[in-house]
Amino acid sequence: xxxxxxIALGVFTAWPPLWAIILCCADIAMKMSGVSNxxxxxxxxxxVIGLHCLTTLETLILFAIYNRHLFKSGRVxxxxxxxxxxxxxxxxIVAMPFYWYFYIWGQHRSGRCRx
Length: 115
Known about the structure:
By secondary structure, the protein is mainly alpha-helical. It has helices at residues 3-33, 42-72, 78-90, 92-109.
Protein backbone atom coordinates (compact mmCIF):
# COMPACT_ATOMS: atom_id res chain seq x y z
CA UNK A 1 0.00 0.00 0.00
CA UNK A 2 1.37 3.39 -0.93
CA UNK A 3 2.08 5.98 1.74
CA UNK A 4 -0.74 8.23 0.46
CA UNK A 5 -3.26 5.37 0.55
CA UNK A 6 -2.10 4.42 4.04
CA ILE A 7 -2.62 8.01 5.24
CA ALA A 8 -6.07 8.19 3.61
CA LEU A 9 -7.05 4.89 5.21
CA GLY A 10 -5.81 6.20 8.56
CA VAL A 11 -7.98 9.31 8.24
CA PHE A 12 -11.05 7.23 7.37
CA THR A 13 -10.22 4.86 10.24
CA ALA A 14 -10.07 7.74 12.71
CA TRP A 15 -13.58 9.01 11.87
CA PRO A 16 -15.78 6.29 13.53
CA PRO A 17 -14.16 6.56 16.99
CA LEU A 18 -14.18 10.35 16.67
CA TRP A 19 -17.89 10.25 15.76
CA ALA A 20 -18.61 8.09 18.83
CA ILE A 21 -16.82 10.63 21.04
CA ILE A 22 -18.72 13.52 19.42
CA LEU A 23 -22.07 11.78 20.02
CA CYS A 24 -21.24 11.04 23.66
CA CYS A 25 -20.05 14.59 24.33
CA ALA A 26 -23.12 16.07 22.60
CA ASP A 27 -25.41 13.85 24.66
CA ILE A 28 -23.70 14.84 27.90
CA ALA A 29 -23.74 18.53 26.95
CA MET A 30 -27.46 18.41 26.12
CA LYS A 31 -28.26 16.67 29.40
CA MET A 32 -26.20 19.15 31.40
CA SER A 33 -27.74 22.15 29.63
CA GLY A 34 -31.27 20.96 30.34
CA VAL A 35 -32.31 20.48 26.70
CA SER A 36 -35.13 17.99 26.99
CA ASN A 37 -36.07 17.29 23.36
CA UNK A 38 -33.18 18.03 21.00
CA UNK A 39 -34.78 15.84 18.33
CA UNK A 40 -37.65 18.29 17.86
CA UNK A 41 -35.50 20.21 15.40
CA UNK A 42 -35.96 18.19 12.17
CA UNK A 43 -32.78 19.40 10.46
CA UNK A 44 -30.62 18.55 13.50
CA UNK A 45 -32.10 15.07 13.70
CA UNK A 46 -31.68 14.51 9.95
CA UNK A 47 -28.03 15.56 10.06
CA VAL A 48 -27.23 13.32 13.01
CA ILE A 49 -29.05 10.30 11.53
CA GLY A 50 -27.45 10.90 8.13
CA LEU A 51 -23.94 11.12 9.58
CA HIS A 52 -24.58 8.08 11.72
CA CYS A 53 -25.76 6.02 8.73
CA LEU A 54 -22.73 7.12 6.67
CA THR A 55 -20.41 6.28 9.56
CA THR A 56 -21.99 2.83 9.91
CA LEU A 57 -21.55 2.20 6.18
CA GLU A 58 -17.96 3.43 6.39
CA THR A 59 -17.27 1.06 9.30
CA LEU A 60 -18.57 -1.89 7.27
CA ILE A 61 -16.37 -0.92 4.32
CA LEU A 62 -13.36 -0.49 6.62
CA PHE A 63 -14.03 -3.92 8.12
CA ALA A 64 -13.94 -5.44 4.61
CA ILE A 65 -10.74 -3.54 3.74
CA TYR A 66 -8.98 -4.61 6.93
CA ASN A 67 -10.04 -8.24 6.59
CA ARG A 68 -8.83 -8.32 3.00
CA HIS A 69 -5.50 -6.81 4.10
CA LEU A 70 -5.32 -9.23 7.02
CA PHE A 71 -5.54 -12.34 4.86
CA LYS A 72 -3.90 -11.13 1.63
CA SER A 73 -0.94 -9.00 2.68
CA GLY A 74 1.30 -11.42 4.56
CA ARG A 75 2.16 -8.67 7.08
CA VAL A 76 0.32 -10.38 9.94
CA UNK A 77 1.87 -13.64 11.17
CA UNK A 78 -0.20 -16.70 10.28
CA UNK A 79 -0.80 -17.64 13.92
CA UNK A 80 -2.28 -14.19 14.71
CA UNK A 81 -4.65 -13.83 11.74
CA UNK A 82 -7.65 -15.60 13.30
CA UNK A 83 -7.23 -13.59 16.49
CA UNK A 84 -7.07 -10.31 14.54
CA UNK A 85 -10.15 -11.32 12.52
CA UNK A 86 -12.13 -11.79 15.75
CA UNK A 87 -10.73 -8.60 17.30
CA UNK A 88 -11.63 -6.58 14.19
CA UNK A 89 -15.14 -8.05 14.21
CA UNK A 90 -15.90 -7.56 17.90
CA UNK A 91 -13.88 -4.43 18.64
CA UNK A 92 -14.11 -2.81 15.22
CA ILE A 93 -13.82 0.97 15.77
CA VAL A 94 -11.44 0.49 18.69
CA ALA A 95 -9.32 -2.25 17.08
CA MET A 96 -9.04 -0.80 13.56
CA PRO A 97 -6.75 2.12 14.52
CA PHE A 98 -4.40 -0.32 16.26
CA TYR A 99 -4.36 -2.65 13.26
CA TRP A 100 -3.73 0.33 10.98
CA TYR A 101 -0.85 1.56 13.13
CA PHE A 102 0.88 -1.80 13.56
CA TYR A 103 0.36 -3.45 10.17
CA ILE A 104 -0.31 -0.71 7.64
CA TRP A 105 1.51 2.34 8.92
CA GLY A 106 4.18 0.10 10.45
CA GLN A 107 5.53 -0.86 7.05
CA HIS A 108 6.12 2.83 6.30
CA ARG A 109 7.72 3.54 9.69
CA SER A 110 10.17 0.66 9.36
CA GLY A 111 11.15 1.53 5.79
CA ARG A 112 9.97 -1.83 4.47
CA CYS A 113 7.27 -0.40 2.25
CA ARG A 114 6.03 -2.93 -0.28
CA UNK A 115 3.79 -1.39 -2.93
